[in-house]
Amino acid sequence: MKTEIVNVALDSLRRTARIGGLWVEATEGGLDGQLVFSVENQPVKFNVIIRKELRNHHLLQVEKDAKRFSPLMIVAEYLFPKVKDALREHNLAYLEANGNVFFNEAGRYFFIDTQSRRQVKEDKGNRAFTKTGLKVLFHYLIDPGLLNLPHREIAAIARVAHGNIAYVHNGLKDYGFLLKVQSQELKLIKKKELFEKWMVAYQESLQPSLNMGRFRFSNESFFSNWSAIKLDEETTWWGGESAASLMTNYLRPGLLTLYTLKSREELLREFRLIPDKDGNVVIYKAFGDMQGVKVNNCVHPLLVYADLMNANDNRCRETAELIWNQYLEHEF
Predict the structure, then answer these.
(1) Does the structure show a pLDDT above 70 at 268?
(2) Are 172 and 135 in contact (CB under 8 A)?
(3) Ramachandran area for residue 59 (φ above 0: left; ψ -120 to 50: alpha; else beta)
(4) What DSSP element (H or E) covers 50?
(5) What is the pTM of this model?
(6) Surface-to-core class of residue 4, CB atoms within 10 Å of its CB (0-12 exposed, 13-18 middle, 19+ buried)
(7) Is the pLDDT of residue 315 over 80?
């Protein structure tokens, strides 16, 4: 339920204010996770505690938590008006499921309080949008014909256990995205809506788990001449801004993105990369075999589009629109 509250709140915020947020579940006690927002291309980071709702008698504990986990944000399905007033008086950040938000942090002030209440429906075991489900859905979105292959074949393509496929199908049916047509053939419906839901969940859930790290080249001239780098077409592909540059010749990448089936150590040796949290190269594990869905040795345009839209950058969004028009619009 907590994860669903965050997902709904971030979806609402994206729609109302065009602000994206990266959600990472906590690995230590006391917190539910962390949120990083991109505001005017600058990150604003919060430790997060999630509540279905917050009452006045909870405020004292929230103030204690804020001192312990500063900067803290409360993410809730619903906050009563007087509670929100009290949180703002104490400069305590919050985000509601409907997209109402307040924070005053790192020189960034943001306040929205115009949205009507949005109910979060508890997801009772739906597994279509788990990390495993998202991997399978990606391959369905780029090739819906896979739906009617034997489950073992689908699982091999997405590199998941074959027992998960039935759960994903049931989840898609529950959400109204999967339909049986003549001869019991399975067909995706509301495909664009499904993709938009996948894109949000991918950024918030799957992509962080695939992150192998940020790096820089030991020889900086490699970055200037990145497009001349020869990738192993069977295992490694350009994504994000770098893929967009190759596909449109419109965007000059500030961050190079790679998706790979190779190990981190292999890539560090191959490209002479040095770990650097502020580096201009980011590497992700490829989720499934991407061969056959590449353009100019890039990941599928669908994933490039998602990477660009999730970057929350005007130039990236402009390029994403070019990719949509050229590669994706006819599919949706």
Answers:
(1) yes
(2) no
(3) alpha
(4) strand 42-54
(5) 0.65
(6) middle
(7) yes
Return the closest-CA partner of residue 95 out of 28, 27, 17, 25.
17
Residue 12 predicted with pLDDT over 70: yes
Q: How confident is the model at residue 28 (pLDDT cuts 50, 70, 90)?
A: low
- Compute φ and ψ for 228, nearest 5 degrees: -85, -5
The rounded distance, in Å, linking the Cα atoms of 281 and 264 is: 13
Query: What domains can be seen in the chain, in order of their start residue?
Result: 2-112 (3.40.1350), 131-189 (1.10.10), 210-331 (no CATH)
What is the residue type of 193?
E
Residue 299 token pair: 């990941």
Alpha-carbon gap, residue 55 to 215, rounded angstroms? 45
Per-residue H/E/C for 105-143: ECCEEEEECCCCCCCCCCCCCCCCCCHHHHHHHHHHHHC
Phi, psi of 79 (to 5 degrees): -125, 130
9: exposed, middle or buried (Cβ count in 10 Å: 0-12, 13-18, 19+): buried
How many alpha carbons lie under 13 Å from residue 180 in its C-beta half-sphere?
A: 6
Count the alpha carbons within 13 Å of 236 in the hemisphere toward its beta carbon: 17
d(CA 186, CA 166): 12
The count of other CB atoms within 10 Å of the CB of residue 275 is 12
The token pair at 179 is 């339909």
CA dihedral angle for residue 293, residue 296, residue 298, residue 300, rounded to 10 degrees: -30
Report, in angstroms and rounded to the nearest whole number, the Rg of the chain calculated over CA atoms. 21
The pLDDT of residue 177: 92
| Nearest-angstrom CA–CA distance, 78 and 230 | 51
186-188 and 108-112: which strand pairing?
A: unpaired
**Alpha-carbon gap, residue 83 to 51, rounded angstroms:** 13
